[in-house]
Amino acid sequence: MSYDPPRTAGRLLLTPEDKDAPARVRRLRRLGLGERTEPAFDAFADRLAEVAAVPYSMVNFIDENRQFFAGLHTPDAGGQGVLPAIDAEDNAAPQVGRYMTRDYGFCPHVVVRRKALVLEDVCDYPRFAGNPVVDDFGVRSYLGAPLIDHTGIALGTVCVVDVEPRPWGTAGLETIKSLAAELVELLERREGGLGF
Question: Domain GAF: where (predicted)?
Fold first, then answer.
């Protein structure tokens, strides 16, 4: 099974081809990740938001069809659990939830690239400015890093998002990469039975 994004003629490819998706899904299932929320992931997302001083942050696991925000911080509902999202099943209008299709957002790019992505002003990048989250949700800046475990699989991302352009700079890049490495270490401790 592979994920082949739609390729509309005359438009930039919004979602990258993800040849690693089947292996990622197997690994996520083996780890028990990507299907349910856990307070530890929400707490990690809260910490991401606090460190970056942003309204939105996520711990995101990605399968063939959708993104799942296992950890979510938003300014609504006391910071947790509410984010406008697109229903993965029918691409309906924005809804509240923890799921988003792979065509929305920038995390699928991070997972495929296997490198952090810094977008200080999304509108400065034609490939990303056309992403539906820009118009539908007002996203203007993004900073995300992949969660690459010891098997070499990019399980998902940690990311922070703002509705204003942000000069993330080298410090922001190093911070998000450090936090991603920290979460991977926690996931590996959990896998080894050492808790999270």
Answer: 36-191
The CB-side HSE value for 162 (13 A sphere, CA atoms) comes to 17
Task: Note the pTM of the prediction, 2 decimals.
Answer: 0.84
Start-to-end CA distance of the chain, whole Å, equals: 31
* Bridge-based pairing state of the strands 56-62 and 141-148: unpaired
- Is residue 135's pLDDT more than 60? yes
Distance CA 52, CA 120 (A): 13
On whether the CB atoms of residues 63 and 21 are closer than 8 A, the answer is yes
Residue 6, phi-psi category: left (phi > 0), alpha (psi -120 to 50), beta (remainder): beta
pLDDT in tens, 154-181: 999 999 999 999 999 999 999 999 999 9
Instruction: Quickly count: other Cβ atoms within 10 Å of residue 103's Cβ.
Output: 18
Q: How far apart are CA 102 and CA 120, in angstroms?
A: 21
Mean pLDDT of the chain: 85
Is the Cα dihedral 28, 32, 35, 38 positive or negative?
negative
Instruction: Tell me the pLDDT band of 5, cut-offs 50, 70 and 90.
Output: very low
* CA nearest neighbour of 180 among 153, 151, 149, 152: 149
Strand partners, 3: 18
Nearest of 57, 74, 62 to residue 102 by alpha carbon: 62
Radius of gyration (C-alpha) of the chain in whole angstroms: 15
